[in-house]
């Protein structure tokens, strides 16, 4: 968002034109869903939601917002329970599993420096290989140390590959190449629909969180802008939120999605309760079997354990050639 805003690529959104703005939950407005939840490092959405009087972005409420929040989730890694013993959420499951020698040669990472760098940073810290002053804004020296670790591990054959899309991540696990991998929720759901028991870990160090947003182009005016507002309002209206819930994603007004979900779906995906019956995923297959509980618990529990948010750091441009060096090493 900072990059788009500074480039004047987007214009402020008028929250009075968002019919249900008053119902958007506190995650993007205050940074928390529950009073004692951690805020997480990096670009937590509330830190850059409101347009400030000086034209910058910040957390103080104002008459303009830089984005409309909608789909979001907490990410971690998936592991194939046929090969990896099931861990205990928030107790034994750890980002350190990405570096665990037990899975040597069968670990896949996401090929995206703005996301993957946090996965491996938390793995490095969890295994005691290094620490960070602020993981949400790493220094060049910290990146150099981290990439030295990664390049050595890659050259030793620890990683089986780097995936660039959800279908590719699914293929890595389904083929047996990877048994531990950075994953997004839809990938885990797709594998479960195939009958592959992949667990979406609840790391004791906390999650890497992300928040999907919609922005308004600075070139948008008149009827086109009206249509853009209609589209944004539709996304918060209920049905879209229910649709994405079935692949493990959340929406910024959960109560609007609730009537479009069955009680069993709501209880499983949001409340963290055991599934009362088999639940189907977006592809129509059985994604959740009766009695299963969503790993990590309820929406509120999972978002109380955010370690870091997806962030474009100050050292972003420096990270790109280093990441490419890793891929080519």
How would you portray this structure in words?
Helices cover 32% and strands 16% of the residues. The chain is an alpha/beta fold and 329 residues long. A hairpin with a 5-residue loop joins strand 11 and strand 12 (286-288). The protein is globular, with a radius of gyration of 20 Å.
Query: Main beta sheet, described?
Result: 7 strands, mixed
CATH class of the domain at 74-207 and 307-328: Alpha Beta
User: Looking at this structure, what is the CATH superfamily of the domain at 74-207 and 307-328?
Assistant: Periplasmic binding protein-like II
Tally the helices: what do you get? 12
Please bin the fraction of helical residues.
Answer: 25-40%
Task: Calculate Rg over CA atoms.
Answer: 20 Å
Distance between the termini: 32 Å
Backbone shape: globular
Query: What share of the residues does DSSP label as strand, in percent?
Result: 15-25%
For the residues shown, what is the average pLDDT? 97
Explain briefly what this protein structure is.
This protein has helices at 2-6, 26-29, 113-126, 140-155, 166-174, 185-193, 222-235, 239-245, 254-257, 263-269, 299-302, 316-328; strands at 10-11, 50-51, 57-58, 68-80, 107-110, 159-163, 180-183, 198-200, 207-214, 216-217, 279-280, 286-288, 306-309. With 329 residues, the protein is α/β, with parallel strands linked by helices. A hairpin with a 5-residue loop joins strand 11 and strand 12 (286-288).
State the main characteristics.
single chain; 329 residues; alpha/beta; D-Maltodextrin-Binding Protein, domain 2; 7-stranded mixed β-sheet; two-stranded antiparallel sheet; 12 helices; 16% strand; globular
